[in-house]
Amino acid sequence: MKCCKYSRGVLQFGLSCSVRYETYPFFNREPGTSSMGGNKQKGLRTTILASVGAFLGMIGILTISTYYCSKRRKNPTRRERIKRSHDTHEELLQMDLATVKEATNNFSFENKLGEGGFGPVYKGIMRDGKEVAVKRLSQSSGQGHNEFKNEVIVIAELQHKNLVRLLGCCAEGEENLLIYEFMPNTSLDAFLFDTGKQAELDWSKRMNIVNGIARGLVYLHEDSRLKIVHRDLKPSNVLLDHEMNPKISDFGMARIFGTDTSQANTKRVVGTYGYMAPEYAMAGLFSVKSDVFSFGVVLLEIISGKRNKMLQLPECAGSLLTYAWRLWSEDKGLELVDPLLEGSWDASEMLRYIYIGLLCVQANPNDRPTMSTVIFMLGSETAPLPQPKEPAFYVADSFTFESDDQSSLKGRPDSSNDLSITSLIPR
């Protein structure tokens, strides 16, 4: 470490000072005396005192530098903490490729659960009978290895019931694999947008999913050891356990924020069209309010049972947000509700959820609530709600669509630092 090298330098300097004083005693000569006369004893005494002083000074500086080294080890910088976290967790969670291949029947088609933005996901059964989900990052993805490292760093630090749990990882040769707890009900979109399964999501289950997602985001933004912005919240990244409880997944695009940072800028815009906040899609600016926007879109999709980007209604101009705002403005908000939910919801409660969804998708990030405020509003019938303005609408036709369902946005080249964002904007 630099501080240790510094300490050795101080030691060498102190010793050299002692040598100089002993070698050249005439520097200690008192005025009016001769270096060749009868004051040799005084010169020797002065030399000894000077040497002792230099030695004591050296000890003091060495003590201070040692304290600095110890303090730095106890309080490492954010970059050092991230690197140590990465090294430690990758070692602790490492699984060998042969074991993963055996669990997934060599990544057989029969074991394939689906295809994500950076590669397929397979079901696996470990030797002890435990079911797992294995994400195999695509070898053709230019960002595959970076996404792998990022996800290991981020999710290994997180522990919350509404976040999917990472069980292990594997990096051998060209294979980058992430092993998660298995979610038997797959993802939210598999139910929400499937006409054969939509009816299984009554309003009670949908409310539970909405509140679970919100709690997971509050943990990421405010309560975890690391301040995390997910950047790709959408129904396919919300997994459902055997009781239909939601767990946010896929942290490959997540970014770690410093505690004194509220907004960041990136040269590489990644995410999914239809769920991205306009300031992020158009200018690369993202913050916790970017996740709030995505949450608002997901909330309106859960209420309506319709995709934001796939709404095929002439009066909607292709956008669920447009449709929801028009209905709200005309006091017809309840017409947004999925017909399959008929009879299972309370009108005032449903209108409050729609209201909150519209607040979350405001064009100005400052007009959007924080996720902790969203939790409060969802659970309180008397919480004051500000008047929503017209939601954000934008066309991202300047981007190339690819990856997850050909809908991820790819902009300019990525930052050279794959563990952080390009520039930070303090509070």
TrEMBL record:
Keywords: ATP-binding, Disulfide bond, Glycoprotein, Kinase, Membrane, Nucleotide-binding, Serine/threonine-protein kinase, Signal, Transferase, Transmembrane, Transmembrane helix. The keyword Transferase applies. The keyword Transport does not apply. Gene3D superfamilies: Phosphorylase Kinase, domain 1, Transferase(Phosphotransferase) domain 1. It catalyses: L-seryl-[protein] + ATP = O-phospho-L-seryl-[protein] + ADP + H(+); L-threonyl-[protein] + ATP = O-phospho-L-threonyl-[protein] + ADP + H(+). Residues 404-427 are annotated as: Disordered. SUPFAM superfamilies: Protein kinase-like (PK-like). One of its GO terms (molecular function) is protein serine/threonine kinase activity. CDD domains: STKc_IRAK. This is non-specific serine/threonine protein kinase. It comes from Stephania cephalantha. The lineage of its organism: Eukaryota, Viridiplantae, Streptophyta, Embryophyta, Tracheophyta.
